[in-house]
Structure of Phytochrome-like protein cph2:
Amino acid sequence: CAKDKGENRYEMYTIEMEKEFISRLTIEQELRRALKDNNLYLHYQPKIDIKTGEMLGVEALLRWNHPDFGFIPPDRFIPIAENVGLIIPLGEWVIRTACKQNKKWQDQEYAPFVMSVNLSTLQFKQENLVEMIADALREADLEACWLEIEITESVLINYDREIIKKLNALKAMGIYISIDDFGTGYSSFNHLKNLPIDVVKIDRSFVSGLPNTNDEAIVSAIISMAHALQLKVLAEGVETEHQWDFLRQEGCHEGQGYLFSKPIAADEFEEMLRNKKKEHRSDI
Ligand code: C2E
Ligand code: MG
Ligand code: MG
Ligand code: MG
C-alpha cells in the first residue's frame, strides 16, 4: 500500500544519505590526513601554441592517490574540500608547490614557462589570499609573471568588490588571470571588458562537440569575442586533429588536451622538457 511504499522510500533515502554522509566524512578525514602526510601531488598538462605547436605554458592539476581507495578524482574531492573549508589549506598547498616546481625547472635551465593553478571561488573569501600568493612567490623565489591563476565565471557573477580588489591586486603583481570553463557560467561581456582578465579558456564540452554545427558556432563566437576584446583564447580538451584544424582556422591561440598530452607527473614532465632541450640543441 501507499504507506508501506512511503516508509520504504524513507528508509532508502536514509540509507543512501548515510552512505553519502559516511563517504563524505571519510573523504574529509582522509583528505586532512593526506594534506598533513604530504600524500598529494600535482600533474602537469602543457598548453600549446596552435599555430607552431610550441609549448607556451602548463597547468598544474591536483592529484590524490589514496593507499586503500586508489585514485580519487578532483571533481569528487574538491567540492567536499570546499564544503568543509579544507579548500583553503589545500589551495595554498597547490600554489606553493606549483611555484616551487616551476622555479626548480627554471633553475635547471629549461626554457621558462608560465604555470597556472586553479583557484576555487571560495579561496577569494580568504582574507589574506593576495598576501599568501605573494608569500608563495617569495618563498619559491619565482617572479610573478611565471604564475597564472585560473578562475571560473562564478568568481565574477556578483561583482563582489572584495573579490575584484583581490583580482586587481594579483594582476598588479604581474600574475596572469584566466577564465576557466568559459561558456558554461554566467559571465557577461562587461566582466571580460572591465576585469583584469588575460585569457579565456573555452570549456571542453564545446570543443569535444566539434565537428557539430552548434558547437562550431559557439566556439567561433567565443574566439571572435576574445579577439575583439584583445584577450588570449585557449581551447580545452582538444582530442582530435580535426578539432585542432578547426581551432587553427578560427584563429584560436592555444590548445590543451589529450591530442598533445594528458596531465603527467613531474618526473615525466621533466623528461619531456629534457627531450625538448636536446631537440633544440641538435637544431642549432
Ligand atoms: P579544469 O581546470 O577545467 O581542468 C581540465 C580537466 O580536463 C582536467 O581534469 C584534465 O585532466 C581534463 N582534460 C584535459 N585535457 C583533456 C582531454 O583532451 N580530454 C578529456 N576528456 N579531459 C581532458 P582533472 O585533472 O580531473 O580536473 C578536473 C577539475 O578539477 C579541473 O577542471 C578543476 O576545476 C578542478 N581542479 C583540479 N585541480 C585543482 C586544484 O588544484 N584546485 C582547484 N580549486 N580545482 C582543481
Ligand atoms: Mg583549469
Ligand atoms: Mg577547464
Ligand atoms: Mg573543469
Notes: The radius of gyration is 21 Å. The longest strand covers residues 55-66. The mean pLDDT is 90.
